[in-house]
Amino acid sequence: MEKESRYETTVKRLIGHNLNAEEKVQLYNDWSPTFETNNKQFDYTGNSKCCEVVCKYFPKNIEHIVMLDVGAGTGLLAKELACKGFKIIDGLDPSSGMLKEAEKKNLYRNLFCTYFTSKPLLFSNPGGIICIVNRRSPFCESPDYVNKFFPLCDQLEQEGKWKKEEITTFNGFIENADRIIIVYRVR
Ligand SMILES: C[S@@+](CC[C@H](N)C(=O)[O-])C[C@H]1O[C@@H](n2cnc3c(N)ncnc32)[C@H](O)[C@@H]1O
């Protein structure tokens, strides 16, 4: 019952309503104190799966790799990455509430409170890995992804700026929603 109520009040609101940028930040600010408890209730495996995929691309010298965790939230991915030996992790998120929780983990070198609005490539050196994770439904249905983001990804690939390395689908979130991980390597 508790699970359903949290799902109703936050996730469904986030997914189902056309919230503007400010409203989304407010929602995450409000959610931040209980975000991790809710993730545990839902057996959310997104961060461990993302970390597993990223680690495949960095078999050695992990401690020298610079990571940028976009949409860092409360720092759950940084926790997974740090366990694997990553030491230089920056985080970026527009929600100050989420970042306040992330800061408590003492795992980030820098935390930036802002929306990510740039082309991902501008933050990566040649050879760098960009790993994108989300639920399948927005990837397939949201006009922002379908009409803007993925056409940009395809265009960058056609221009030889990056190359798709893999697409992995896994199950492990609320109501059996599939999630997708897409990995690009910058050229
Ligand atoms: C569902 S939470 C996930 C947090 C964390 N990655 C995890 O899996 O535990 C999504 C986070 O992405 C942030 N976010 C949403 N749009 C963003 C954007 N354009 N740039 C950076 N962060 C964004 C939100 O503020 C929120 O903290």
Automatic annotation (TrEMBL):
CDD domains documented for this protein: AdoMet_MTases
Residue ranges of every copy of the Methyltransferase domain listed in the record: 68-113
Name of protein: Methyltransferase domain-containing protein
Gene source species: Mytilus edulis
